[in-house]
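Final report, results section. Input specification for complex C-07:
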Amino acid sequence: MTSSPEARIFSPAGLQDALSVLARNPDARLFSGGTEILMDSFGEPPNLSGTIISLSGIPELKTANRSERYLDLGAGMTISELVELGDRIVPPCVIEAARGISRPSVRNLATIGGNISSRKRRMDLYPVFVCLDAQAELRRENASRWLPVSKLFAPAPDKPMQKDEILCRIRLPLDTWDIAFLRKVGNRDIPDETTYTFAFLAKAGRGVISDIRIVFSGHSFFRQRPIESGIIGKSLPLGKEDADAILAQYTSASAEALLIPSARRTQFLCMLEWALAQLSD
Amino acid sequence: MTINFTLNGEEVSVNAPAIERLSSLLHDRFGLSSVKSGCLSGRCGSCLVLIDGRLANACLVPAFKARKASVTTFEAYSRTPEHKDIEKGFAKAGVETCGFCYAGKALSAELIVSGTGQIDADSIAEGMSSCICRCTEMDSLIEGVGYAMEFRRERLYDVEP
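Structure output:
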């Protein structure tokens, strides 16, 4: 442990050490890639103070393991390392989302865990992981649990990620999706309240839509599971009446999502209309 | 805090606040003027360095994270034969930079030329995107990187470009 007047830095060499330090310092700030923390500190010095636990030297957080059904990704893997695994190991939609994050030099620093842990920037990997029903492994000193990525920021009764927990792994089910469409809109350089990621995944089986996920996520999160449930089972190719009805439902629902800027709502509906058209071909 | 790391091939040690940005540390304490504090938010690319062989924005790295790392700045890279390939390639394509961004562009180009992945115009444009300065249009940069690859092959394998 080393100190400066502003910050006390712990650099554990292993996960167990990190968990022990965190248990003794529950208010410590976890630092992995640190890109968001330093990006948001436009001036000197960076907005870092108090106790900081650096996770960058922990090998257990940087491994990837693939089985027949799942892919486990260490939360400490950089975005570049994720992309370099390639689409034979990582679902192509995840690779595509990762490639859309900032620039190569930033992707060499930013981590998977950092990208999905940002409360104010739930874009890129977060919406894709939600669509894929990814699970996050959270560990504290003597306990671990799995939590759906969609519940990382859930209200308290759902036990979201706590301050004394470290996000260690993300588990991705390796299902095959027949259609996967991603588009990032807004300010890509420094994601702000206008930056959103549109994710549309669909499966087809025996001439019907067997599963569908539609997420629009950024500064706020928009997903309508009841509408998705209503789409499942519809025949393919999707008829114009069905597509129009789905679009009308989302038009109505998105109008009530007041945190999404109106221009982005319009873009969401345009992208949704296009994505539904792919089911009509 | 004592920061021990490898800088341009030499083991160095410096006392600095743990949270000081690496860009400031390199520029102010080591006099490495190729590393500039521009946007301080990882956008402009004026602080690009290689950290453990990877291109990185030094403004996004606090000093404590540089411990035990190997950092290479343009000052060291510019003295290598690899840089000559980039220089010649840029010159042949007519690339003329404003000077402020050349270090970042050269380091970005080096990682493309020395990489093993598929190289096409799109991947070159993506690889050069870490430095956003538009003093030179992307088409010239893509052409310059292409020529640099030819010069690299010629130098390493004695192959006619």
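The longest helix of chain A spans residues 262-278. Chain A touches chain B at residues 2-7, 9, 11, 31, 34-35, 38-39, 41-46, 48, 52, 54, 56, 80, 102-106, 108-109, 189-190 (CB under 8 Å). This concludes the modelling results for the funded period.
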